[in-house]
Amino acid sequence: xxxxxxxxxxxxxxxxxxxxxxxxxxxxxxxxxxxxxxxxxxxxxxxxxxxxxxxxxxxxxxxxxxxxxxxxxxxxxxxxxxxxxxxxxxxxxxxxxxxxxxxxxxxxxxxxxxxxxxxxxxxxxxxxxxxxxxxxxxxxxxxxxxxxxxxxxxxxxxxxxxxxxxxxxxxxxxxxxxxxxxxxxxxxxxxxxxxxxxxxxxxxxxxxxxxxxxxxxxxxxxxxxxxxxxxxxxxxxxxxxxxxxxxxxxxxxxxxxxxxxxxxxxxxxxxxxxxxxxxxxxxxxxxxxxxxxxxxxxxxxxxxxxxxxxxxxxxxxxxxxxxxxxxxxxxxxxxxxxxxxxxxxxxxxxxxxxxxxxxxxxxx
Length: 364
Fold this sequence. Notes:
It contains 16 helices and 13 strands. It is an alpha+beta fold. It folds into 3 domains: 1-154, 2-Layer Sandwich (Beta Polymerase, domain 2); 155-240, Hydrophobic Seed Protein; 241-361, no CATH class. The strands form 4 sheets. It has a 7-stranded mixed β-sheet. A two-stranded parallel sheet has the order 8-9. A hairpin with a 2-residue loop joins β4 and β5. The longest helix is centred in the last third of the chain and has 19 residues, at 260-278.
């Protein structure tokens, strides 16, 4: 449960961070607003560690660059066209972006960049209410125009504006809903889920590389199953990884077999538990998690119903390896990941554990 008193105290600590205090002084002296925005504010309220400093300001990019130069060791302006200036201040990487008031054409994810005039308007164009909060660093006031604190308390993911408009502007936000559901262990608002189901086809304007990146971020969470269920139940998974919802095989009264979809989610969870046991503190093993999720995708294509109620899936390991390779290539995974995952899928019925006095399949 979110403790607001503790959250307010953590926001104060965030404002006192040396990097934040330095930039607050510089921008205040120039008569400019400066606010920490998005994830750092959310995580401070939740008591989570934050590693990023994202700021927003009413200053335009050229002025931002001029202001940060004296207090930073290096600057970069590759995002200048979008209002973003990056810098390294006291060893910390920061990004400072001019208030935005973008518009979208619904054909591509590229917005028509328009700079805004107010912090509140900037926040309402963001993906979810819990990411649409800001801390004015000089006044140390929380700005929350769309009810982000209430949604943190309710552990709810909701868009700041009509979800159909938000996802119509940027369909990638639908994938981010699934990722944040897992990352934060939150529930997605029913109206938001309905909008994802209705607009799932618009994901086609998002590049495979961006879809892949969000899938990887989802798999890197401690419980990706929560987000995977969101993707499958809304139909969004059909748009980029249809092999997963296809695992929900029908079981009739004469031929019985285990639920392959639920089994695959169980294997994914078990693989993550094994990671934590054997390699505590290591970065998430994304190829292993992908292979665990995909290991049985060959079953729907190889299922045979036998007389007497039996069911077989002969050579589903070989078929699944080919399917996995094809799908990962379509999602623009690198060659090494594609090879490792498809090989693990191919070998998942092989025995292991002889040295430990046990023999079982990697994943049954």
